[in-house]
Amino acid sequence: MQRIAALLAALTPGAAAAQASAAAGLWRVAATTLVTPEALATGGASSLWSPAQFAPPGRASLSLEIVQTPNAVSAAGLLATARLRVRPIGELGLVYGSMQVADLVRTTVDPTPVDGGIPYGTRELGLNWTLTTGGTTLGATVGWEHTRLDEARSDRATCDVGVRQALPAGIWLSVASHLSPLTTDQPQHEFYGGVEWGIWHGTSWTGSGQMTLSLRYGATLATGLAPDHQFGLGLALADVLALDVKVVREEDYGLVGWRGSAGVRIGIGPYRVRYARDTGMNDLGSAYRVGLEALLP
Questions:
Q1: Residue 221, pLDDT above cutoff 60
Q2: pTM, full prediction
Q3: Which end of the chain has the lower number of beta carbons within 10 A, N or C?
Q4: How confident is the model at residue 102, as a pLDDT?
């Protein structure tokens, strides 16, 4: 609810602060397809939300994901990452994200559209670093974000950080920031927190491989918005199959709403295929995300 509301509110051009709101609104819409709390997201293009990513199984990894929202929103995006293990400093990676809104028509006092649409989109390019030592994973992403809303353009440097910590009894704690500007005149910070508990590990049948059932909770704190509370459940069968569901409690203008998302990840040799979809809100329809990740030996 508030993710869509933030996007629609950002469509009204204003001062420079509106540019930061416009970019933040688009990234929040893209996040509706995440099937885990942002702080706990791993693999694929998850480093766009959580800089502290686990090391890839092999020497490197490449991923490409596409985000598509319903026609009522008409936003689409491309997310891409490339990561390389560089001993002893950890993993280095490139992170790219692009979100655009189409079909914004320009009108005057007459509701009839005039020639030319209203361009609205944002792009982010960053350098990611992660390091795992013991049960602690540290991550940071330094990047540059460009946003355009009609004839107004803005550019800003960003610096995000994240930490994951393993605790006894199969518990993980994680915190992260998202697209935090290096300047404070247009604050559009987001902060994520999450906890994951592997409540069961074992095998369901002979040769099934290691299975893990996990419970998750996460919270999102965003400038100018009420906190989100996220509850999730995940089932992973080794590296072959993973099923995840998440429900989110959102509060917008004093109204509380619930939405959900679900996704599946299938491992085929060195490839990981991902598909995720949210349940949609207010009859707007569902957004979805599809992706392919290649693990290089």
A1: yes
A2: 0.85
A3: C
A4: 81
Q: Which domain holds residue 88?
A: 2-296
Task: Tell me the two tokens of residue 286.
Answer: 């569902």
Structure tokens at 63: 């991923």
Give the CATH number for residue 22: 2.40.160.40
Under DSSP, the state recorded for 35 is: S
Closest by Cα among 241, 191, 225, 207 to 38: 191
> CA separation (Å) from 256 to 9, 27, 228?
18, 21, 10
If we measure between CA atoms, which residue out of 23, 25, 45, 49 comes closest to residue 37?
49
Residue located via tokens 């280095």: 92
Phi, psi at residue 30, to the nearest 5°?
-60, -35
Return d(Cα 156, Cα 145) in angstroms, integer.
5
Side chain identity at residue 66, one-letter code: I
The domain total for the chain is: 1
C-beta neighbour count of 234 within 10 angstroms: 21
pLDDT tens by residue, 236-286? 998 899 999 999 998 876 788 888 999 999 999 999 999 999 987 666 678
Q: Is the peptide bond before 88 cis (omega within 30 degrees of 0)?
A: yes
φ, ψ at 246 (rounded to 5°): -150, 140
d(CA 216, CA 227): 17
Residue 64, C-beta contacts closer than 8 angstroms, at least 6 positions apart: 45, 78, 79, 80, 291, 292, 293
